[in-house]
Amino acid sequence: MTRPHDFLDIDFLLSDEEREIRDMVRRFVAEQVTPYVGEWFEQATIPRELAPALGALGLLGMHLEGYGCAGASATAYGITCMELEAGDSGVRSLVSVQGSLAMFAIHRWGSEEQKQEWLPKLATGEAIGCFGLTEPDAGSDPGAMRTHARRDGEDWILNGQKMWITNGSVADVAVVWARTDEGIRGFLVPRDTKGFTAPEIHRKLSLRASVTSELVLDDVRLPAAAQLPLATSLRAPLSCLNEARYGIVWGAIGAARACFEAALSYSQERVAFGRPIAATQLQQAKLAEMATEVNRGLLLALHLGRLKDAGRLEPEQVSMGKLANVGAALRVARTARQVLGANGITLEYPVIRHMNNLESVITYEGTADVHALVVGGALTGIQAFR
Amino acid sequence: MKICVLVKEVPDAAVDKRIDPATGRMDRSGERNLNPYDTHAIETAMQLREGGQLEVDEIVAVTMGPESAVRALHKAVSLGADRSVHVCDDALAGSDVAATGYALAKAVEREAPDLVLLGQQSDDGECYTIGAVVADHLKMPSLTQVVKLDVDGDALRLERQAEYGYDTVRVRLPAVISVGDAINEPRYPSLKAIMGAKKKPLETLDAAGAGIDVALVGAEGSRVACGDFHDPPAKPAGQIIEDENTDETVAQIVAWLEERKLI
Ligand SMILES: Cc1cc2nc3c(=O)[nH]c(=O)nc-3n(C[C@H](O)[C@H](O)[C@H](O)COP(=O)(O)OP(=O)(O)OC[C@H]3O[C@@H](n4cnc5c(N)ncnc54)[C@H](O)[C@@H]3O)c2cc1C
Ligand SMILES: Cc1cc2nc3c(=O)[nH]c(=O)nc-3n(C[C@H](O)[C@H](O)[C@H](O)COP(=O)(O)OP(=O)(O)OC[C@H]3O[C@@H](n4cnc5c(N)ncnc54)[C@H](O)[C@@H]3O)c2cc1C
Q1: Stretch B16-29: mean pLDDT, rounded?
Q2: Are B15 and B124 in contact (CB under 8 A)?
Q3: Do A17 and B195 touch (CB under 8 A)?
Q4: B256 touches chain A (CB under 8 A)
Q5: 52-91 of A, contacting B, C-beta below 8 A
Q6: For testing contact with chain A, the best of B32, B71, B73, B188 (most A CBs within 10 A)
């Protein structure tokens, strides 16, 4: 018999261990996120204590090896992103940025000393990291960045501005990308470095349960040891984004699932014209469509996860996944919002919160357009960016 | 000291419970999980170990069940047990409560624990009796429905949930203690613990290996057989009190509750 919440029995494709991880994260979200997140969203905050709580569960940098990280599979990491984002995209963003952007950058491109210094604290959530690539005038085209670093004896001097940086104001360490005479380089900037500030961006109407900031670098002096030694081109930051995007392929389906489930239960309880709206053909068609999007998106995510674990996943496949799943999630969220009638516009239900969050998710980590261009380029062999 | 925790795999709480009319037993197909009450028993063991007043050397999870029941053991280990014992034999299928308690007692006996913990009920059978049966076979005191447990010198001080209030009991070990879900808040298994669970020792025993006399277990060895099944009686319709005057409404609610001796 099919089950409304796992219509295609995708559960059957998971290992026992993957189910255990899912259940653990799901319980954490149900107990520690869902009851409070409407309030966080309204107040535009996310509690700092969430990071150590996630760290204690082993979820920060969970797919990395060593330095206090669990070394979990890509699939397990994806499942975790899905369950976290079923709570809120902001919570998943915290984990994505910490694990896939900041920690991954250090793990993949950093020196042994940098790894020893930062990874264990980032894994426990004692420290928070952020990742500064985007600038006010360079988003989709990061190669146009203006932030630059010049050598001064042994040291580096950084100047410039980063924009839209998740976790920026609360980060203990910022991974900052800058141009140099030798090409793009990455730097680890500790929070209290002189000349470095991270003012928070206010008045967001999306991803409100997430800190988004500017990073201002005003003659920031860093020792040579602050530079990520293995990162020598734009390839380095793009490799990090590829990791984080992979998590979003899963995460978006978590948000979609939460919207679908809210619409399903609402439609069964809400009576209009003398019967539950779930008894109407129009609403059943919407429910069927939403369930299909969620199941199809999850199959896609799981497939990419299995490819990644087998070492076969290509960046353009991740682009296809992000393009497809975030688009699907937005459609599901908008449909679910309508099923909830006027209740659908309030924070009493999760739907409009997810719907607004997904507007960020479809933009960050490469906009839908950019991913379409990546897929198009791979299909045709013609790069259409410029 | 050594603690044995009895655990059981049950249908997931989200799955509707159903009796299979052909066998007269619960339909246990579908998603399964570790019995939620047992997670409280494991947490109790963990808190005893971490409290440091007793030296807990080992926490051993013990189950009797089909092959799939290893998942309950993995979960128990991910929540803190050091190793596990799985009693698994076709001869055990269809055991009633007395037979199950006997079989578990035999498996536990081999471990010679100082304390046996278990959940007060299973989410599927809801018999509340396994603890007492196991204790009887092990010749240990049985304490049921325990909602508070503290170390008191060389003994334990327990609060049992009674019909009106609590009984406070002091018991010297060894003992068999079944716990209610009010006793603690089970921890989250960490990712590393989940990933490490399969690497912890797991011993699988057949009936003979556990020293179980197969004449006393299984459908044959069980003296209780379920006969007929009925749906629970339909609940009478509730009474809706329209709130026109709050004082009157309150008085009506209080009268209703008093009539049923609920206050
Ligand atoms: C909440 C939030 C958190 C973020 N967190 C981070 C972070 O932690 N770190 C970080 O570095 N960045 C972060 N970002 C920035 C994000 O990655 C960028 O917003 C994104 O890359 C898009 O850049 P942009 O906003 O400058 O848009 P632009 O690049 O200016 O794009 C504007 C529009 O033009 C389209 N476009 C651009 N180029 C082309 C083209 N060649 N052909 C067709 N259309 C095109 C885009 O698709 C888009 O629709 C975050 C953003 C948000 C909203
Ligand atoms: C910001 C805001 C301001 C408002 N201001 C006013 C106001 O000033 N005065 C006022 O009177 N009202 C106001 N409303 C209420 C608004 O008119 C109702 O929300 C609207 O009529 C829908 O009713 P509902 O929310 O009860 O949804 P429901 O009627 O419960 O509908 C829920 C869902 O079921 C669908 N549905 C219902 N019946 C059927 C059917 N037979 N077949 C198929 N699908 C069906 C709907 O299309 C919807 O998707 C306001 C609402 C909002 C959000």
Answers
A1: 71
A2: no
A3: yes
A4: no
A5: 56-59, 62, 70-72, 76
A6: B188
Can you state the angle between helices B70-78 and A16-28, rounded to 10 degrees? 50
Q: Which helix (H) or strand (E) holds A150?
A: strand A148-152
Beta bridge partners of B202: B84
Can you give the pLDDT at residue B28? Answer: 65
Give me the percent of chain A exceeding a pLDDT of 70: 100
| Domain range annotation of chain B | 2-221
- Which residues touch A157 (CB under 8 Å, ≥6 apart)? A149, A150, A151, A219, A220, A221, A222
**Between the CA atoms of A105, A106, A111 and A114, what dihedral angle is there, to the nearest 10 degrees?**
150
Check pLDDT > 90 for residue A78.
yes
What domains are defined for chain A? Answer: 10-124 (1.10.540.10), 129-232 (2.40.110.10), 236-380 (1.20.140.10)
Write down the CATH superfamily of domain B2-221.
HUPs (3.40.50.620)
Query: Between the CA of residue A382 and those of A123, A144, A314, A317, A379, what are the distances in Å?
Result: 41, 21, 17, 17, 8
Confidence of residue B238 (pLDDT cuts 50, 70, 90): confident
- Closest ligand to Cα A186: 1
Residue type, A117: E
d(CA A125, CA A25): 16
User: DSSP letter string over B139-207?
Assistant: T--EEEEEEEEEEETTEEEEEEE-SSSEEEEEEESSEEEEE-TTS--PPPPPHHHHHHGGGS-EEEE-T
Q: Residue A363: nearest ligand to its CA?
A: 1
Residue found under tokens 């009693």: B87
Residue B29: its pLDDT value, please?
67
ipTM entry: 0.89
* Collapsed DSSP state (helix, strand, coil) of residue B102: helix
If you average pLDDT over residues A341-360, what whole number do you get? 98
Residue ranges around ligand 2 (CB below 6 Å): A 270, 272-273, 277, 280, 282-283, 338-339, 341-342, 345
- Is B177 within 8 Å of B143 (Cβ atoms)? yes
| CA B107 to centroid of ligand 2, rounded, Å | 62
